[in-house]
Amino acid sequence: MEEFKPLSPEETCELVAKAKSGDEQAKERLIEGNFPLIKSIVRGYQNKGVDYDDLYQIGCVGFLKAINNFDPSFAVKFSTYAVPMVAGEIKRFLRDDGNIKVSRAIKSLWIKIKAYLDEFKKQNKELPTVEELAKKFEVDPADVIYAMDSSQQLISLNAQLDESSQSSQSVLDRVAADDKSEQLIDKILLKDAINKLPSREKQILILRYFRGKTQSEVAEMCGVSQVQISRIESRIIEKLKKKIL
Question: Among 125, 126, 50, 133, which residue's Cα sits nearest to residue 92?
């Protein structure tokens, strides 16, 4: 890819606004102008059994999500906001992809279909049919089904590596968490997810996990029962897991 002149903050804000309204050229210009940023993030996830080009496409999916979700009221530069979104998309793919062995072409097709469906769902009530997807990507309907089906064959993170041993580690236990940059990204993703919670849920979470309050104390402060706080807390945690993992 050829070199592109970096975008100024003003140009970025203008292009993001256009892209959010559906301007495809603005999206392409944002990706081109942020190529070094996306590339630097992708480099950190090489040597994990996925081709660089595939990782880059996945990173671009995360970048497009950052465009769609960005709000100037966040009081943060777009590039700063985009980093955890791009990294998070790659991390989710690597975690979910497991040991699936499908061709690069099928993986690439699924990445394109997934990105298209994410955009399509925001503008339409119903999802496109297999035939419509096949026509859109100029492939056989069978290839669409295979690509979509291959994405569902996921290995559980809780699956035991050695079922014959009671002390066997799960896949999740083997996921490395020593890299400081990954920990930072996880913190940014968590903070972003918490900030998007409704005010009441955010208050309960902060009281429980950042102020050290018991469920009974939080219940008294909120004027509800301890059982209600327990249910709300479980719902909040599940909501955060879906956003981060």
Answer: 50
Give percent helix, percent strand, percent coil of the chain, each to the nearest 5: 70, 0, 30
Q: How far is CA 74 from CA 38, 103, 108, 195, 196, in A?
A: 21, 40, 33, 10, 11
Domain 1-96 and domain 99-154, same fold? Reply is no
Kindly state the tokens that stand for 142: 């069978």
pTM of the model: 0.44
DSSP of 74-121: G-S-HHHHHHHHHHHHHHHHHHHHTT----HHHHHHHHHHHHHHHHHH
Domain boundaries, the chain: 1-96, 99-154, 182-244
Mean pLDDT, contiguous 10-residue spans, the chain (245 residues): 65 89 87 88 80 85 88 76 86 65 70 84 78 85 68 44 45 40 58 79 85 87 88 88 67
Give the chain's length. 245
What CATH code is assigned to 182-244? 1.10.10.10
Domain 1-96 listed as CATH 3.40.50.720: no
Residue 5 CB partners (closer than 8 Å, separation 6+): 33
C-alpha to C-alpha distances, 48 to 45, 51, 75, 104, 149, nearest whole angstrom: 7, 9, 35, 14, 22
**3-state SS, residue 191:** helix
Phi and psi (nearest 5°) for 204? Answer: -65, -45
The CATH code of the domain at 99-154 is 1.10.10.10
**170: which strand partners?**
160
